[in-house]
Every structure is written in structure tokens, then in C-alpha cells.
Predict the structure.
Amino acid sequence: MDARTIIAGLRDGRGLSAAGAAWFARGLASGEVEDAQAGAFAMAVLLRGLDEAGRIALTTAMRDSGQVLDWDLPGPVIDKHSTGGVGDCTSLVLAPALAACGAYVPMISGRGLGHTGGTLDRMEAIPGYRTDPDRATLDRALREAGCAIVGASADLAPADRRLYAIRDISATVESIDLITASILSKKLAEGIEALVLDVKCGSGAFMADIASARALAQALVSAANGAGCHTVALITDMDSPLAPSAGNALELRDSVAVLAGQGPERLRRLTCALGGEALALAGLAADAGAGAARIAASLADGRAAERFARMVAALGGPADLIERLDAHLPPAPERRTVTLPPGRIVQAIDTRTLGEIAVHLGAGRLRQGDVIDHRTGLTGLPHVGVEAGPITIHARNAEEAATAETALRAAIRLSPGPVAAGPLVLERITA
Ligand code: URA
């Protein structure tokens, strides 16, 4: 086996065998595959595509290119993945809620990508919280809290780390086959038995239209199930921000509010829908509806909040985070309120622009290595179909706040008459 033969097979439409995928993934991890070969491989996959067997082969090969975690826990080990959006802080609520319902959730998460926020960045708004614990600390957190939101260690799916960096500079990020193998290799290396996927669709998502969101969801679900992990995907609305905020400490506040049994309704509803699917897949609920009711109960009675507090303390954060949120999350120095014309209904939102505004305020990275300002972002964001209330810009200085206001006003279109809001869950993909 050699790289040239594998690439030529893809180029000429002969597909990717399990042995070829395993060889290539090992070569990516070890360095035997050169950068030029990895780039050619990615382009051949993008142009010729993989069939289902090829996608499963690449996914499992990339999963096995590093350590696959192994747990000895008294309940099912499960997780959720979102393809990313604006105000999508569901993971912060869902992981402890699933834990409160008897699952174990080693949630290995990523940072913000482009205009979307990242779960790790949100968790790092908590002073002292470690997203890179050693294995003993991770094990202890998982055992004590039932969930641990952390980053990937260097030996988790190393083939993906290498291929992802090469895709980024070779115009091959967009391949659904490569996205599928990339996302799933990392998730499946967590050693999970069930996975719920949240495939975002709309103006703030990477998949802006339903056809491409459906194609990605189907590829993910079939590859994950083919690799032996019980998986369902929900395609969900990203034509509006999910939570009414964008920015790390600000979304953390929304998450804590939902954990405390209140908070934004759309965030709570989606947490219940995704959690219901996950509990059903794991055998902890009879069906998704019963699972959603269990998740809702764990939010209403404080059990999910208690799991979140345990996880934060086990990973180095303050034991009284929930009780003393204001003491631990300082405000941004500059706050500016934007009022939109009263009596109008939100007709459309350029949600990607809202995410980009938050990034430019310091909530995300414009260049690799930029340091995030966890205090900054937007709150009071509306969704389509409602009258917008005041929106607050949380900025580092007055100049950045003024720039954000101009962009914010241009991103929201208002209607004088009623506007029907679309559903939050657009489709459910099971095969
Ligand atoms: N997230 C990933 O981890 N990989 C991709 O290719 C796209 C999104």
C-alpha cells in the first residue's frame, strides 16, 4: 500500500477501501503521508466523493489513528455534537442534564470557528476552569459529575488534526465526506455508544439551505451508525440566534439560567429535544418524547444545575459559580443599548453577521492565537417572528461599540405586519 496508489484510486473513481483508509490515516498521524499527498487526497475526495462504505472506512480509520478512550462507568457513555451556530450554548445545559438522567458525557469540544462560538471558549469564561485536565482529573470529574466538558488531547484522532489543517489551506473544507469523517472521528474516539447530532440550518449556519443540511445530516448519521454508534440527527433552525446572546460569559449566563429552571425558551426547548433523543438512543428513556420530559424535569428541579456545579468544581472552577455568577463574571467596560423601531416584527436576521459582530467585539478570534475577551458580545437578540426589545452591545471600548451598532442595525430586517416564525426543529434524520 502507498499514498500514490490510494490517491490515484480516488482520482479515477475506484473509491476508498477499508485497508486504504486505514493506511492513509496512519500515515497522516505518523508523518509518512506528506503534505502534498494529504492535499491531493482531500481534493480527490472532494471532487469524486466517497460512497457510504468509503465514508465509514475513513471515519473509523481516522478515529483509530490515535487513542480511543475506554471507560468503566455504571451507565451509558453518550454525547452530542452541533455543527455550530450563533448563541448555540446547548452543550453547557445538555451535558449536565444528561448526567442527571443517568448518562455519562465525556464531551470533548472545540473552540469557535469563523462566526460561530465554541463550547470550550464559553467554559473558559469561568475563572479557574481547566479544559485540558490530565486523564486522572478527567476520570474523577466524569465519575463525580457524570459530565466533563473538555478539549481534545493531542493523541485523540491525530489524523484529523493534520488533515483539517491541510484542508483549511487547500480549498477542501467543504467536502461533506471529509466533514463527516472529521467530526465523527473525534466524537467516536471518546468511546461513546450513542450520539445525537444537531445539524444547524439557516443564515447563521455553515449549511444555509435545507438540502445541504439534510445531505450532511444523512452522511453523519449513516457513517456514525455504520461505525457502531447509535446516532440520530435533528436539523434545527439557525435563521435566528438560538439563545438571545452571542459571547462567552453572556451565553454562559443564559445557560446557567436554563439550568436554574428559567432562561431563554428556545434554548431550553432545544436542550430537551436533543436530550430526549440521546436518552432514547442510550436506553434511558422509552422514546424521545419521554426522554425530553426527563431532561425538562432535571432542569426544573435543580438536578442538572447541581451536576453542572459539580463538573465546574471538579475541573478547577469556583464551587459557588451558580450562586455568585456576578462575582465571577465581570461585565464588559462599555455597554451600549440599541433600540429598534417599536411595533415592528423581526422578518429576517443575518445571523452570521451577528456572530461576526461578536467576534469583532473580542468574543472570538480573527487570527490564530488571538486572546478572547470573555466579557464581550451581544444580549437581548431577537428571533424571527417577535418584536425586538432593546439589544445590548458589550464592548471593550466605545469605538468598537459604535461599529457594532451600525452592523447590528443592518443585520435585522423588520416588518410592519405579522411574521410567522418557522419551527425550531426542522427535520429528524434517523438513517
Ligand atoms: N468541524 C470539524 O470538526 N470538522 C470539519 O470538517 C468541520 C467542522
Remarks:
- Residues 178-179, 182-183 surround uracil (CB under 6 Å).
- The first helix runs from residue 3 to 11.
- The chain has a mean pLDDT of 96.
